[in-house]
Amino acid sequence: MHAPLRKRHGPGLQPPLLHPRHSSFESESSSKKPQFHLDLWFYFTLQNWVLDFGRPIVMIILPLEWFPLNKPSAGDYFHMAYNVITPFLLLKLIERSPKTLPRSAVYVCIITFVMGASIHLVGDSVNHRLILSGYQLHLSVRENPIIKDLKPATLIDSFELLYYYDECLGHSMWYIPFFLIFFLYFTGCFTHLKEERKMPLSAWLLVGPSGLYYWYLVTEGQIFILYIFTFFAMMATVMHQKRKGFVLDSNGLFLLSTFAITLALIAVWVICLWNDKVLRKKYPGVIYVPEPWAFFTLHIKGRM
User: Of 73, 131, 171, 304, whose Cβ has the fewest other Cβ atoms within 10 Å?
Assistant: First the structure.
């Protein structure tokens, strides 16, 4: 009897050996066809306007008797909801990225975001109670009438520390990972598909409210430098990918259009308040971007 014949493969006929991780990545990429994430962008826009922009308004509108100054206010509960919902939406957005993003970087960003937003929650809660007691946002901490007469004088240092946690440390730990996650997601928003090279009608309906919110976020958060660097990085990524033959898909176009509208609104805002002497004193330096709530306490609150 002859031994069973074994099928031999020549050098060019070797069966393809796929690494399990490589094959799973290809199947994952093929299953993630680019399409506009209407649900996620709608949820982002809705919760940004309601939970972030709306929380100081709720604190002003609702009667003070419902939320005493020594208890959390309605705005604080809005902030708590924002701190839970926003990182969840960011994680869902990363899950839908056609490009596999570094998990460690995403995890560190989310953890830092939650910590920074929580620090801001405490500082902002106390800050808004000071506003109800006569604190004026267009003045510095030491120039405020209700602060400069405190005894002992070392209490002023404590309020300056609170301001630092609220406006500096809290904002940095909140917004840097927030914009970094959007940029990481943006790097995967490129395609060859012709049908994905334009925004659908639903995206055009959301891009205006989204751009207007980010105008508020950048001006109130005093993060213009962070925002403009992110926008320039997006533009540089677009030009780099264009040389490779890739173009933005609908989600990338939505993000870039949103940031472009934000930049235009910031320019109009700065031009309108360019000659405001009081705000100029509060925001000295080359980059002059006044906060909307400082404008409110200076020009609107006294007329109400």
Answer: 304
Q: How far apart are CA 61 and CA 46, in angstroms?
A: 20
Choose the most confident range, by mean pLDDT, from 94-98, 136-140, 223-227.
223-227
The residue among 190, 157, 138, 90 whose CA lies nearest residue 295 is 138
State pLDDT tens for residues 142-183: 888 888 878 887 888 888 898 899 888 999 999 999 999 999
Q: What are 214's two structure tokens?
A: 């980010």
pTM (two decimals): 0.81
Higher pLDDT, 21 or 234: 234
Q: How many CB atoms neighbour CB 86 within 10 A?
A: 22
Would you say how long the chain is, in residues? Answer: 304
